[in-house]
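User: Some background: our group keeps a shared notebook of sequences we're curious about, and every so often someone picks one and asks for a predicted structure to add to the entry. Today it's my turn. The entry only has the sequence so far, pasted here. Could you supply the structure so I can complete it?
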Amino acid sequence: MGLLIVNTLTEQKCLHIVIGIIQNNKQEVLVSRRKPGTHLGGFLEFPGGKVEKNETAIKALIRELAEELNIDVSKFVRLIQIPYSYSDRKVLLDVYVVNEYSGKVVAHEGQEVFWKPIASLDSEKFPAANYGIIRALQLPKVFPVTPNYTQDSSNFLKKFEVVVSRPSTRIIQLRSHELELPEYSQLAKRCNELCKKHGVDLILNTNLEYFTELPATGLHLTSDKLLDAKKRPLSTDYLVGASCHNAHEIEHANSLGLDYINLGPVIEKHTCENSKALGWKMFSILAKKSLIPVYAIGGLGVDDVEASVLSGGQGVAAIRNVWGITN
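Assistant: Of course. Here's the predicted structure to add to the notebook entry:
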């Protein structure tokens, strides 16, 4: 069963929480265990605490990590912001990854602290609001998406291997809606072989009934298939994402407990869809409604990762730029 995530946060008063993800050069992050008898006692958590009145999130981050862990933060970057409603309270989580700090970690509040590999983080051992944080840590900044196979069928697999062989590629989506199932199935199997060869996760943009017969790490839903879904289509053993263009679709993705969304088009209008380009301002407004990582898509490339992050996104999902298409 997938984790049900419902964003019912309103403009009512809520707890503003800042979280610091302390990361070392071994791809590990610092976690602690909440004390028994406290709210959500026994769960794992990331360091942080409440933002005080008239205090900025960044000032709260620096203060909380100094008080809680005896460290002075010197370099950090925004990861994700999550509005979440528990049954008894509402929280707004401002999350930052801390890359540099001085001082030796000391648990001033007597809590158990230890390092855990990012890849081994299990969202079920953390409070529910942390689901999107863990997904954001585990997902890359650039998410390549293939063009249609028939656009350049003679060179498709060659170009596919070029993309998945890059050290920066950790995940790729195979999208080729023009193919019938037998052709798509054959292509997916060939792509999966190349992904296994280079240690890359393959996400298939196809129907659920076809997916179960194909080798892949995850499933990507079109916006229509997203709205048709009444529950998360696969267990959390698989990655499941969706294409979104508006607030309604984002809220539905939240309710299904998906792992990421592609939001757009940000710059380039899809020629096959009746959707207008959002622009970065609207992208930022919509991204704040998501409880999971948001990839910007539509006329973007690797050079737009920073713009996406500054607008509240995880990074970019790119086709032309990573595939080398110039027109």
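Suggested note for the entry: The chain has ten helices and 15 strands. The first strand starts at residue 15 and ends at 22.
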